[in-house]
Amino acid sequence: MTAAVLVTAPHGTSDPAGQRAVAALVAAVAERAPDVDVREAFVDVQAPDVPTVLDGIPTDPVVVVPLLLSAGYHVRVDLARAAKAAENPSVVVAAALGPDPRLVSLLERKLADIPLAADDALVLAAAGSSDGRAVDDCRAIADALAERAGRPVEAAFISAAQPELRSAIAQAREGGADRVIVLSYLLAPGYFADLAAAAGGDLTTPPLLATGEPVPSELVDIVLERHRAAHVSSVLQASLDLAARV
């Protein structure tokens, strides 16, 4: 089976550190899979956008892999529309990066670097979404991390969902927390990471792609698995459709 073109689709950011971090992830994916044609596109802010990149791939099978931690509006609407509008009929959109147990492992690793007291509160800071399914995905990550950490982890959101991050931090203090540790469930530095850091926590961990740190192998694994799974599913569906017409 010929490998499909892999088009990465992060949100995009005007933050230079965030741009470098995401570019490093894309480069690591390309290095890990030299037989795959890896191309970078963006949902917003940066160029080229996804439709432009898809226009440059008129015939080969394509899998758009959202470099997004949950399947909210950008995945279910923006990217789905771009795939449907493409002249190439062999474009499919893969699942978002999360939820995935390996993302929980990355958060757990960041948490392990912090000496915790018994009365410290943990808050998972996610971007937020108007799509309830994406919000539930983030809460599932918080619950999984709580199970591993052996202590509560509350999911809170920077925008579009409740509880709002600042409110969750304030409520934790009112509940008697000595410190509030904010765990950034964000992919890379940028606007949302800055908001998380300024929300009032005593300590805020860096995003999953942290400045000055190597790209986590888990993220590369997830991207390539999303690409492969979507391509296999697409090929299987095409075979079933062909058989149904015979």
From TrEMBL:
Listed GO MF terms? lyase activity; metal ion binding
Lineage, top ranks: Bacteria, Bacillati, Actinomycetota, Actinomycetes, Micrococcales
**InterPro entries registered for this protein in UniProt:** CbiX-like, Sirohydro_Cobaltochel/CbiX
What are the TM regions of this chain, as residue ranges? none
Query: CDD domains attached here?
Result: CbiX_SirB_N
What organism is the protein native to? Pseudolysinimonas yzui
Q: Which Pfam families match?
A: CbiX
**Alphabetical list of SUPFAM superfamilies matching this protein:** Chelatase
Keyword annotations of the record? Lyase, Metal-binding
- Superkingdom per UniProt: Bacteria
Query: What is the name of this protein?
Result: Cobalamin biosynthesis protein CbiX
